[in-house]
Amino acid sequence: MAAKPKLHYVSERGRMEPIRWLLAAAGIEFDECFMKTKDDLLKLRKDGFLLFQQVPMVEIDGMKMVQTRAILNYIAAKYNLYGKDLKERALIDMYVEGLFDLNELIMTSDYQPADKKEQQLATALDKATNRYFPVFEKVLKDHGQDFLVGNRFSRADVQLLEVLLMAEECKPDILAQFPLLQSFKARISNIPTIKKFLQPGSQRKSPPRQEDVPKIIKIFY
Amino acid sequence: MAGKPKLYYFNGRGKMESIRWLLAAAGVEFEEEFLETREQYEKLLQDGSLLFQQVPMVEIDGMKMVQTRAILNYIAAKYNLYGKDLKERALIDMYVGGTDDLMGFILMFPFLSAEDKEKQHAFIVQKATSRYFPAYEKVLKDHGHDFLVGNNFSWADVHLLEAILMVEEKKSDVLSGFPQLQAFKARISSIPTIKKFLEPGSQRKPVPDDKYVETVRRVLCMYYDVKAN
């Protein structure tokens, strides 16, 4: 009897958001337990639930999993979103690691002090436009297929869509030079599980409100 | 016809060191091309060899692999150091994530100002002894096995040994509260492939020095200040 996975985090995107995306893409329902104060984090630590005293933590299949990558790897492999062999996995890993870097840059800019925030965001968007997006545009162009790897839907497609949308939130015309990424975005957004996740009322989170940022930081530090 | 893997990086530890450890532990011989000049780096860029314009890059099995984690995952899986099933992989990934974070604090160390180095030194020791080492000490104590996962030698063991040695370079008695880790360190260090890698003359790189920092800054045109944690 498999219970639903249970996610422990704050009610923000942060490092949990790619996990929400992947579960949703795989059509897996999940519960969430939101930390609202520092005491909530301290309690999780005190109960011995956090291997390195950190969240994200996901209760899944009898494990209390921590470390974002470990959790994503497990979900991807379990739900067949990790390619069919070692070589496809290698490609997927290269792509998702690059996307992870970009996601971090964009996501953490929201939590920077006012004087650093704009600069970091500018750097992130510059890297998106000049380093990351051209790579994925070329991958799609070179093989002409609908999905990034192996002509099959995988976690790489989910994570790329997530980052494309995050970048567009910051700069709506950021995909102007990338026609294949534009059609990729439309195509992947239409996959039923993803379409559902993109609708209002889903468990997808929004960027943090400016006024909430100090409170959120206080929970962790 | 499989040639030896070829590593493209600076002549120093950085992000490539964990890859050297894992290949060595698996008994896989590898070649290295060291980046010394900006021109070398720009040539790699122009050749389209660096997917995201970054190193590490490893030529292996016909691929030009980038992204440290992707490379490590591939090597671990190929050489059966990644557990026997999904659940063991989950544990290995969790443990490697922790040691990766810990070594990340040390990675930036040589690039810090003298003042920040002092702060970071304290930070590294504090995190090692209050967050990371206790976790691994407990894992070993609870199951009483020689290896971290599945009673079998895996990537997690290699990575933890690497991390322990790196922290010991910062504070030589840092394992004094951790008897299991002390025994673990002795045990894993005696595994023949690892023992060989720990001997002088191996491809293991020394603690980074000013020359290394200067090379990295020059090749990457990375002249900005790196912040401490």
From TrEMBL, chain B:
CDD domains: GST_C_Alpha (cd03208), GST_N_Alpha (cd03077). GO terms for biological process: glutathione metabolic process; xenobiotic metabolic process. Residues 3-83 form the GST N-terminal domain. GO terms for molecular function: glutathione transferase activity. Residues 85-209 form the GST C-terminal domain. Belongs to the GST superfamily. Alpha family. This is glutathione transferase. It comes from Columba livia.
